[in-house]
Structures are given as C-alpha cells and as structure tokens.
Design goal:
With 157 residues, the chain is α/β, with parallel strands linked by helices. The chain has six helices and five strands, in the order αβαβαβαβαβα.
C-alpha cells in the first residue's frame, strides 16, 4: 500500500506535543486518521529517547479484552513507566463504550500525553464538548486534497 506524508496534519500534531489537552483526531472513514497517528508515533521514536508509547488499536482483536472502560484504564496504568514521558494513543476509541470515563480519569492524573482517533459518526464536535469539556483539541482530518491525490498517483511532484 502506498502512503504519502500529510505534512500539514503531522506538523499540527507535532506542534501540540506536550500540551496538556487531549488531542482528538477526527474525520470520516478512510481519511487517514490512523496513518497520521502512526506517522506521529514514528516521529516521536525518531526524535526522542526517554519516551514510553502506549498504543491501543481497537480495530485489532488483540485489544478486544480491554474494550470496557475499566479494563482500558487498568491496561494503560499497567503500562505506565515512571521516569519517562508517557504517550497514550488510542485508535478507534469509540469501540470502547464509555471510553470518556477512562480517558478523563487518565487525563486527570496529568502523567500522559493523550491522543485518540475516532470517526465523525461517533465523535461529533458537540459530543466532544460534552465528553471532554475544555480538555481537548480537535484535529479534523479530511480526505486527500487534489494536490495529495496527484502526489499519491504520481501525476505531479
């Protein structure tokens, strides 16, 4: 599968590194939310040493047992590493009912830099305002622009 770097979105997330807010990446299905998150994780690994990446992909059956908010919270806490900067990434967070309870609890501990993805159908801006009052920054990802489309298909450089 071919991929392209979506620098506009990646740079936006890089600029938010270390801010206390929950970073929520939203967009329609297949717009590149998960790929953007993976690109950011690779950026962190390439540029920082003293980090701990906690990554959960709820589309992967390996994480099926923690699709309950208490289990999600416990899993993250078990993987916390003192003396390191702890990054929490949860892909397709809406697959965990009442996920906001776990995320808000983890946020209140002030020991994680939190990033989550979810589709527009489940994470509408009005819902986010209710779920994470004043605690989040939304990064809305759109499908390819015309320039990105051409780059993907090698029509122009």
């Amino acid at each position: 599968m071919k991929t392209i770097t979506r620098a506009k979105y990646l740079n936006r997330i890089i600029d938010l590194n270390g801010t206390p807010d929950i970073k929520i990446i939203t967009g329609i299905r297949r717009s590149g939310k998960s790929k953007l998150m993976q690109a950011y994780i690779e950026y962190l690994k390439d540029h920082f040493e003293n980090i701990n990446i906690i990554f959960i992909d709820f589309m992967d059956l390996a994480y099926e047992e923690i699709r309950e908010y208490h289990a999600l919270h416990a899993y993250v806490e078990e993987h916390y590493q003192e003396e390191k900067i702890n990054y929490l990434f949860v892909d397709e967070v809406q697959m965990c009912p009442k996920f906001e309870l776990a995320i808000n609890s983890l946020y209140s501990k002030e020991k994680y830099d939190i990033y989550i993805t979810g589709s527009n159908a489940f994470l509408l801006s009005a819902d986010l305002a209710t779920l994470f009052t004043g605690r989040y920054i939304e990064i809305h990802v759109f499908p390819f622009s015309f320039q990105e489309y051409c780059q993907y298909y090698k029509r122009i450089e």
